[in-house]
């Protein structure tokens, strides 16, 4: 029955295309395309309305996070699963963190005490490559420890500023995605923190929470502008020369 | 004019009390007291409605916090200012943190990596003395470092559990006040963190954020129950003997 119906449908479509002129066919196809675009837009609007009715995004992630493959988050249209031996297709706290970071389209402001996690570094470098404006404020002492990714970010041309005072630690661990989404918690950007420690992260688009963190970032960014301080190390000079400061 | 009016008013009140019987006077005073209580209740209701219309509490605090006198937060009805040389009557991030902690009436669940701040320890001991049920989960290594206040809490009979694994750090820094208010951020409970470092704390009563932290606390509390682990140190045994575990 189904085969017969499908065949007759195919026949009638074929007949139609024979009967219709090329101009008419283009008209139908054009109208179809417009209807498709409108439909997608309407679905988008509906999804936004549904999301708005639940209030701004609020998500809490706890660590340690099990080690799974996150390759599909970095390489778009990659065939799944990839060849690596890690478990595939599993969502973890770490993969959620990556998803939120990689959702940046315009800007990423990052304030982090310790940054040695290779995959988080890969995510930041990828955002920079995609044209996202990345600004990083970090700790003076911890940016030079073994395994720190701060040098790699600077080499790629990402603007990094560090706490200027040697008596103070820049102990924040927060990120601001597109000036809209706040990611904050106890998690330093290290492998131990992600895979071993008991840690937490909160992701929110609540403007009353996001706003103060954005102001704090801007305050730290301006306070640690190397142009306002005497040059103390090569890193400071490199920072001025290579990155496009805002 | 004003003096004359006040005088005549005083006279008429005196006349009234002369003319009114004792019973009538008591009636007026009783009604006045009822009106006052109702008025205060109504004001309270109005304040609650106004607060609710702004949504659940959301407050962000940044550190370092300047050193000011916080004595009035510990001793109720104390004459102000006290005799100490610190600045008085100034609200800071640290005083706001103390206000939120000392607002606990029923319970305080605390998950903190490093705890050596004397005034925060004093606040926790005061809550315990007031009958608030305090539970603490902390890090195994950091609870024994010089200046740690964990021993003082245990001596006072407060229930403290520590991360049982030696390979893992309990790196959270959050508190739950009366199962309703969440205090979380990058701030460890040390003097350096409060007075020197760049740190953040968020205080919120948003149920979607509070809920997951409450679950995480309960999970850690149960996972680190010394009754389920072989005794490894005196602290663990002391914990079982002295505090009333929930």
UniProtKB/TrEMBL annotation, chains A, B:
Pfam families: PLDc_2 (PF13091)
GO CC annotation: mitochondrion
PLD phosphodiesterase domain location: 166-193
Record field: transmembrane: 25-46
Keyword entries, A-Z: Hydrolase, Lipid degradation, Lipid metabolism, Meiosis, Membrane, Transmembrane, Transmembrane helix
Coiled coil: none
Enzymatic reactions: a cardiolipin + H2O = a 1,2-diacyl-sn-glycero-3-phospho-(1'-sn-glycerol) + a 1,2-diacyl-sn-glycero-3-phosphate + H(+)
GO MF terms, alphabetically ordered: RNA endonuclease activity producing 5'-phosphomonoesters, hydrolytic mechanism
GO biological process: lipid catabolic process; meiotic cell cycle; piRNA processing
Protein family (similarity comment): Belongs to the phospholipase D family. MitoPLD/Zucchini subfamily.
PANTHER family: CARDIOLIPIN HYDROLASE (PTHR43856), MITOCHONDRIAL CARDIOLIPIN HYDROLASE (PTHR43856:SF1)
Protein name: Mitochondrial cardiolipin hydrolase
Species assigned in the record: Sinocyclocheilus anshuiensis
């Amino acid at each position: 029955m189904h085969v017969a119906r499908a065949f007759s449908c195919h026949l009638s479509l074929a007949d139609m295309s024979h009967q219709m002129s090329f101009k008419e066919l283009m008209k139908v196809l054009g109208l179809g395309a417009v209807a498709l675009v409108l439909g997608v837009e309407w679905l988008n609007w509906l999804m936004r309305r549904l999301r708005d009715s639940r209030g701004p995004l609020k998500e809490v992630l706890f660590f340690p996070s099990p080690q799974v493959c996150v390759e599909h988050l970095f390489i778009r249209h990659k065939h799944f699963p990839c060849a690596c031996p890690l478990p595939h297709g599993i969502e973890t706290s770490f993969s959620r963190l990556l998803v939120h970071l990689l959702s940046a389209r315009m800007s990423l402001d990052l304030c982090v005490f310790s940054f040695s996690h290779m995959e988080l570094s890969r995510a930041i470098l990828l955002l920079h490559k995609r044209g996202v404006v990345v600004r990083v404020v970090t700790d003076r002492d911890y940016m030079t420890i073994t395994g720190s990714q701060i040098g790699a970010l600077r080499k790629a041309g990402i603007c990094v500023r560090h706490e200027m005072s040697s008596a103070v630690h820049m102990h924040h661990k927060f990120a601001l995605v597109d000036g809209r989404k706040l990611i904050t918690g106890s998690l330093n950007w290290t492998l131990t923190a992600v895979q071993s420690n008991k840690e937490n992260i909160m992701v929110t688009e609540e403007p009353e929470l996001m706003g103060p963190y954005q102001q704090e970032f801007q305050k730290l960014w301006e306070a640690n502008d190397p142009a306002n301080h005497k040059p103390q190390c090569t890193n400071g000079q490199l920072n001025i020369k290579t990155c496009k400061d805002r």
